[in-house]
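Support reply, case 0932

Customer input (verbatim):
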Amino acid sequence: MRTSAANRTAADSLLQCDIDLHAEGKAVGFVRQPHSAHRSAYGWIPTPIARIARGPGPRVLLMAGNHGDEWEGQIALGELIRALEPEHVHGCLVILPSANFPAASAAQRTSPIDDGNLNRAFPGDTHGTATQQLAWWLEHVLLPGFDLVFDLHSGGSSLTYVPCVLAYRQAEPAAMERLLRLVRAFGAPVSFFSNAASNSGRTLSAAALRQGVLGMATECGGGNLVTPASMALMRDGLRRVLRETGLLVQADLPTPAPTRLMQVGGHTHHVYAMERGLFEPLVEIGDEVRAGQAAARIHFHDSPWREPLTVRFEIDALVLCKRAPAPCERGDCLYQLGTDLD
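Our regenerated output:
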């Protein structure tokens, strides 16, 4: 008889980590997720994981590849695994550089196994699809006991971003102040905040809230590219955040640039395509825009005698991201906007 979701424990998960995440020293290995496929009847998905630990101190989880086509974080975390040794830390650092490993291997946002979007699969299900099983293990087995989880995203294949840090507002003033110190330490040009998710939120950030873990994330670059500027910020920003937590023993880091504190609210902070066609952006990321200003034209290449549809902004705002590919369909996000934090 299956146990109910509310009563399941770590022992109910099929996933197993082949390194001890609470031991001292440095170790690398895999989270093994059983997966029976045509090419391998008794196989398992090998998701890389690393632990670097020395003595008492904060416990920090760094994660990338939540969406498999977002590369900056995956590269930066691989570099950290190679560079850091136990003598560089006080506490425990766990690194999951390609969390949705099937998606990363396929260079896709979602898993090719079940089309699962890991960052919309929490709290997961031990008896669900491959992505749901992974989400359950992450939230209920891995996350508890950490002080901070930092989830590294970028725009992936469909969006490009002004380098940003994003997080939920914290109800406790002390937690909000601690979060602001970490956000400022990263040093992105923009840091934006959303209202906390309900208890049914499906992202890793919502999972962190449910588990009492402080969470933050990045949106850094995108467009299916890796650039020198995005990688430089990712490398230095990660180390500054680890130093701010008290985990990393390193003093010689560049001073972070000031960050503009912003918020992203409801539908007015997003611009969507309302017709299928070719997206012609009329502004760039980082531009300040006004309500009523033309944002884009949608061209109809299947009936080129039609006049293009002009899409307009609804609010005064900063353009945080824009769609990368020109082809679009009704419902595709063209822009995300930010306004200054209240």
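We compared this against your earlier run and they match. Two observations from our side: The radius of gyration is 21 Å. The chain has a mean pLDDT of 95. Please reopen the case if you see a mismatch on your end.
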